[in-house]
# Entry
Amino acid sequence: MKKTKLFALIASSAVAASLLMAMPAHAASFQMTYLTPAYLPGTVAATERIVADWNKANPTSTVKIVYGDVNNMQDKLTTAFAGNVAPDIFQHEAVSILPFAKQGYLANLSSEMAPLRSSIPKGLWSVGSYAAKLYGVPTMTQTYTIFANVDAFKKAGVAVPTGTGTFSWDDFRTLAKKFTANGNYGVAWGLKSPAAMTMIMGMNFNAEFFRGLTSGSGTRLSINAAELEVPSRIHAMIYDDKSVDPASLTMSGAGPLPGFLAGKYAMIFAASYVASDLDVAAKAAGFNWTALPLLKGNTTVQGANPQTLSVTAQSKHKKEAAAFIRYMMQDANLGQLALGEGLIPSTTGALAAATAQRPGSAGWKQLFDDGASLGLAPFTLVPNYQQWKDTVLQPAMQQYIQGKISISTLKQRELDGWAKIR
Amino acid sequence: MTLSVAGQSVAEKKRRKYYLIPTYIAVIAYVIFLGFPFLWMLSTSFKSPYELLQLHQSFIPKGFYWQNYIDILRKRGLINSAKNSFIIASCTTILTTILAVPAGYAIARLKKIFSGAATAWILVSQVFPVSLVVIPLFMAVKRVGLLDSIWGLVLVYLVASLPFALWMLKGYVAAIPVEMEEAGAIDGASSFEILKNIVFPLLLPGVVATALFTFLNSWNEFFYALVLIQSPEHETLPLLLARFMGSEGQVLLGPLAAGAFVATIPSLVVFGFLQRKLASGILAGAIKG
# Structure
């Protein structure tokens, strides 16, 4: 009897112990890290609100925000991967995650993000993918667009162009000339770093730049009329029409904004994120702005390099990290994040949510409508593209824009530079 | 004769006074030139986002927009970052000075072969670019368990600061005549007494200059901190301030200026304190020497 009791006691203790040991495995809580370069007040507030909501709803798999510096994300991630201390989730840009995907540092999110696929344009989905696997979920992106001072248009009796695919490069040139009078320039264009913009806008004229991407025989740079169309047009506006303020040529993208707000120009060419600053001016002083339809050459297509969310291969909680990304991608969350950045959200639902938050703004409506024109820029997939763009195209294009070299020299430098890098 | 000398002296004094006027004007102009960016930063820190978007910026802000300061102090964790930076810079400075003073003295005074080898080694250690050493350094810091720790950063800054501190102090020690030490020895002073009473007072300005240099370098360092620090609670000031700048020239100018202004205060205080020592050190050396 005693033996039986003792056996029962030991057995029940063992069962209890094994249960106790097993229980923490299910109930164990952990914290994931989310590295984000968010810095604008609207985006920081949105990110913190989303993470707080997630943590409240998921107390066993919480997220800790780690803020990174947008200009040094690549260095930060490179060392973090090398040291095996990478964050679980991170936000970066599509072109820059490509090398990490190739080196196996990122988790394949294809199946985890399958529910989102139908709501993201095919082109954007492709930008975050490598070898048919999704490594970066596209969240939001920018377009290059023309912002207009509506009051200046009204004063000049010029109708503000609206719609989609209705505003050509020739129309833009005519408008710029029309507003160039009495010592004022029609347009200001921050062309300090023109390389990426000229390539992306080149897609309006079917510029390809690199051929043989899938031939296996190596990628070839080819510069023809289509590839030179955009730089030639910009050059003509600066030097033939004299409708672009030369002072703006050495400014960064948002540099001409103060002059635009002061009524110095009727239009500025800039990336869509400028809209958040224009909102500040509209609120403070009633500045009446809008965005014009995307420029049309043969098409209105622009290459996209969206912000992406990725899960690292080093993460011990890939499923939960993917679930957090899906949470961030919910319409209201993504819409709020995109508005904070002044960017265009990638999903149709988030576009609608963001539009609803800016009722009555023709400018924002136009920007959100433009999202449909964004697609994959094939040249971003070319190995060494970034190096060629930064070390060859950028200085050559700057010199061309400043009138120091001819179009044929520009072409030659691009080709020679690629031959050296390749 | 005395009168004439006295008369000459008064005339000379007057002439000197007139000569001093352009000197003072030049000094004042130089101070304004140096101080203007600082004052402009202070002015910017009180401007609203809309005012900062204006084409013509005024030196005096239209109003005092305190939100920039509230943002950086309450929402962005500036106090914590400043505390981290101060601890790191102070510890690095103290450790560097403690190690560099005797080492610099030894290199300057010991036989030429050793001195030459040590100097060459210091030079060699400085020729590698940061980008080349950062990943091995990262792995080493990780291996000793100091990744994402302010003490790891102190260790790295100490290693990075020592060569230049040694180089500076070696020069200061070499400038002190050996004959002074020999005179002390003839008077019966022990080696320690010579160092304490003769060498160190004369070396003090050099030590202060080296300490200042080390402190400012550690206070401003960005890249190692970027790579080695992961958690927001261990973030240093340069990392925090960099986050006010976006891509394509975007910048949150108001909070950045407010943060930069607050960040400047501790280094100014340290400089003000040590600068007095710098001057008094020179005098102390002269009198005791």
Summary: Chain A has two domains: 24-142+305-364, 144-304+377-421. Chain A touches chain B through 43 residues (CB under 8 Å). The domain at 144-304+377-421 of chain A is CATH 3.40.190.10 (D-Maltodextrin-Binding Protein; domain 2).
